[in-house]
Each structure stands twice: as C-alpha cells, then as structure tokens.
C-alpha cells in the first residue's frame, strides 16, 4: 500500500471518528431559553456532563494539546541549540550550507509557534477548569460579569492562535518573507497587465462607437 493511499485512509478514518465522537452532543444536550434573547445548554445525562467538561473540554482540548506542544517545544529547542553549536565551531566558520540554514529557520519558526500556542492555551485551560469547578456555585452579578470578561478574553486568545501562524512564519523566516513579497509583486504586476490589456481592447471599441454616433448625427 502506497503512502498516499495510507494517508487518504487515515484522513477518512479521522473524519469519521471525530464525527461520531461529536454526535452524542446533539443527542445529550438540550437548548432552553434562559432570558431575553438568550439560551442555555443543559446536559440530559450527568455522566455525559462530567465526560464533556472534564475529558473533552479540559483534557482533550486543553491539557493534552498543551502537553504535546510543550514536549515538542523542548525537543525543538534542543535541536535549535545543536544547530547553533554547529555554527560556532571553528571548522564551521564558512557560510552554512543551504540545508542547514533552512533547518535553522524551520526550527526557529516551530519554536515561536509552540510558544504562541502555549501562551494562548494556558489561560484558556485555567479558565475552563475554573468554570467547570465553580459551575454549581451561586454567583452575584459582579462575579458573573468578571467571569464573562475573563472567558471572552481567554477565548479570544485561544482562537487568535489559529491566525497567528502565518504572521509568526512571516516574521521569523527571511526566505518566506522574500517569497511572499515576490509573490505579491508578481500578482500586482499581473493585475496591471490584465488591466492594461482590457483598456487596450476596449479603447478602439469606444472610439468606433463615438465615430458611428457622430456620423449618424
């Protein structure tokens, strides 16, 4: 079996697994009106509520990804440290080969990416754990407003991480910046050429229409 077919099978199995994994939420959770223009989700099963709060949200969405990113972050830092040591060795005074320079840039990008994910995930995990523990506690309006603000900020940081990868790679890699701006310039030049070609084609047509109108008059 080829690697491409194996990758396709794994992608299909992943989609099926996570689709089936999220299906019980549709069955076990009901939506009820809470106040004016507001609704609240209530679990029909207490056991599934614990599973949703402590395993899916806390472990599967927060602790497990954070642990994986920290582990690979340490390994990435170790790899980058080895590359830096190779750069300062006496026999490596000449310019690094292209492969080693690309490896160094890639390691730097990965380290920044993992740092960004850790910074955005830790507050989200702490806030999720706090909301899960204090879910059954009676709270006044001030505390509720403070918790809503904290949830909004941590959610913003968590979802902002999905858009931060592009900017991290663009800032940390000189090669990527050159290719990106070169692509922008080529796209802009192509648009100018298309606009010029359209104007060249439409100009004689407009002149012919003006001449025809003048003759008819």
From TrEMBL:
Domain G-protein coupled receptors family 1 profile, first and last residues per copy: 1-169
Organism domain of life: Eukaryota
Main location group: membrane
UniProt keyword Transmembrane, yes or no: yes
Bilayer-crossing regions: 7-32, 52-77, 110-133, 153-172
GO molecular function, one term: G protein-coupled receptor activity
Keywords: G-protein coupled receptor, Membrane, Receptor, Transducer, Transmembrane, Transmembrane helix
A Pfam family per the record: 7tm_1
Annotated Gene Ontology cellular component terms: plasma membrane
Localization per Swiss-Prot or TrEMBL: Membrane
Mode of membrane association: Multi-pass membrane protein
Protein known as: G-protein coupled receptors family 1 profile domain-containing protein
Top-level taxonomy: Eukaryota, Metazoa, Spiralia, Gnathifera, Rotifera
């Amino acid at each position: 079996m080829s690697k491409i077919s194996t990758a396709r099978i794994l992608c299909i199995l992943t989609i099926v697994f996570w689709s089936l994994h999220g299906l019980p939420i549709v069955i076990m959770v009901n939506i009820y009106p809470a106040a004016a223009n507001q609704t609240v989700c209530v679990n029909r099963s207490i056991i599934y509520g614990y599973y949703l709060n402590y395993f899916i949200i806390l472990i599967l969405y927060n602790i497990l990804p954070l642990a994986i990113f920290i582990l690979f972050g340490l390994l990435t830092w170790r790899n980058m440290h080895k590359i830096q040591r190779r750069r300062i060795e006496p026999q490596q005074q000449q310019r690094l080969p292209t492969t080693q320079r690309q490896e160094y840039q890639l390691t730097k990008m990965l380290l920044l990416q993992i740092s960004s994910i850790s910074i955005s995930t830790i507050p989200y995990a702490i806030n999720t754990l706090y909301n899960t523990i204090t879910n059954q506690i009676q709270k006044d309006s001030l505390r509720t407003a403070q918790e809503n603000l904290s949830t909004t900020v941590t959610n913003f940081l968590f979802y902002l991480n999905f858009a931060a990868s592009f900017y991290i790679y663009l800032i940390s890699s000189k090669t990527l910046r050159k290719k990106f701006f070169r692509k922008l310039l080529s796209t802009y030049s192509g648009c100018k050429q298309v606009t010029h070609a359209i104007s060249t084609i439409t100009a004689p047509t407009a002149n012919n229409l003006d001449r025809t109108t003048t003759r008819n008059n």
